[in-house]
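Standup notes
- HV: blocked on the assembly model, inputs below
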Amino acid sequence: MSEEKNELLAEISEVLETVVNRRVELRTDMNIVNDLGLDSIAVMNFCMALEDKFDISIPLHDMASVVTVDDLAKTIQALRSNA
Amino acid sequence: MSIFGKFAALGARYDRLKQSGADPFSVRFDDILSSVEGVVRGKKTLLFGTNNYLGLTFDQVAMEQSADAIRHHGTGTTGSRIANGSYKVHAELERELADFYRRKHCMVFSTGYQANLGMISTLVGKDDHLFLDADSHASIYDGSRLGHAPVVRFRHNNPDDLAKRLRRLADQPGDRLIVVEGIYSMLGDTAPLKEFVDVKREYGAYLMVDEAHSMGVLGRDGRGLAEREGVEDDVDFVVGTFSKSLASVGGFCVSSLEGFEILRLASRPYMFTASLPPSIMSSTISALKTLRREPERRTKLAANSRRFYNGLRAAGFDVGPECTPIVAVIIDNPDVAVAFWKRLLDEGMYLNLALPPATPNSSAFLRSSVSAAHSDEHIDFAINLMTRIGREFGLLPAETNVRPFPVSAERLGATAATARVLPTAVGAGAGMA
């Protein structure tokens, strides 16, 4: 895994911790809903926090197609490069 | 595994709730005696969870006009307006609402839920953007899912946060629609509408305000938050419901924008639903006339809200940040809230129990809605009962240890913190009612 991606994952876990108020060890293959135990509202709040962290816009339907942490990282990378 | 297997986790949570001896989702009223009294398990019960703000469900004139409409026009329209045609009373109801809101156009929907579904899913398309307050009602979220526009959520009641999100999409083509509510149904807080209007203007967006809980409640003439804040000209669409202040069922949208009428042929939740029965529309027209003719109901409602809100706050409860007819007592532990709710019902008071995830911050709310039909005695009974149970449950200090009123600034700060970005206790007045 590239250093850039590691850094991104670290940033994502930082954001996630502010949403769930606990320490989280992220792996790329993790399922965001099942493995992280996020309900639909927590996912939407996570999305909002990610938007602010990376100064991007993640419309909710983009979030709907995100299943794993890796999907999320790719989505953020794509949105950042479009910005 | 059956087709219902996917609901296993939900079912388990519901079972756990029922095991605690309370089932807030299947309360049955043996009878309804008035706008504010019912019978539950043979016991006369005071109703504090009805959204019956003006107390018009038993209005004599409305009931007679409704019965008359059934005798003359039958029990139902048996179809949609585009297929089966409209009755005179559909047009009359739309005219009355447009006149009340001083707007050119009105569309009536079969429920308030469908009004949001029909408007939000249709107004913005895939090349537009939809901006929703994070604490929006389910009907607003569902409208956003039925439509094709990308959806962006902003932090509750936070115009700066909305502006930031609009800015990120500033170079994108298409229209922008912002949706906020007059009074939020869980905590009873109002939107900072003037500030939202500033943002809307700056970014050239359209603004829709859902006045479901504020129609008949706020504003000198009862048109809601936009009237109270003096920004009606900047609100492009007002949606609302007949199932609260107007004491029936149905929903509407009013607007003065050119071209509005085409929505009758574009909005699927409008087109493919049976239209309201004549009896419902007749009582709704009657209730709207009463709402306009009797502003004293609004005055009484405001006084009742203050009495209840201030009474609960003075007793030491954590209440919502603003005094409106929706008065929520915030209880951190949902299990305690369930037990509290059950005790209230056992002792003759019904209110709504709001549990996570329907509530912000994983807390639970004992959510009351005050009515103009409540008497001072009803409200005092409710305050005293809730205070007694609150002490018994250890949520409030024992009577002998009660601190002098009003409650400390620190305590108010705690309430505001629970409610996040909201202003502190606006309009709460001082001391006990």
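- HV (later): unblocked. DSSP finds 15 helices and 14 strands in chain B. The CA atoms of residues 201 and 234 of chain B lie 8 Å apart.
- Next: hand off to the docking folks.
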